[in-house]
Amino acid sequence: MLLTDKEEVIIATIATTGYLPRAMVMAKSVKKHMPETKVIVCIVEEKIPQHTNGLSAYFDKVILAKNLGFPTFINLSFNIINSKGLMHVKPNYYFIY
After folding, report:
1. Could you report the per-residue pLDDT of 25-34, keeping only the tens digit for each?
2. In a domain, 5, yes or no
3. Rounded to whole angstroms, how far apart are CA atoms 65 and 97?
């Protein structure tokens, strides 16, 4: 598929703090091979971890999943293991973008 000048590519991913380095590697690769592409990360944590300064070097937008506004997020996402918590967020996150 060829994109026209008016079309924009956006790649979105979801990560917990533990998976954030993988998301950063993916974003770096995307920016290297597709520099005009926007990369968005949704972090499934209570707050953006302090040790992750410099996320803007990798991502065009950083979102906290809890701020997406869908019901029961806190109850479900933080009471189950990370991979299942991410699966709970995905349908809501991709629907918004």
Report:
1. 999 999 999 9
2. no
3. 13
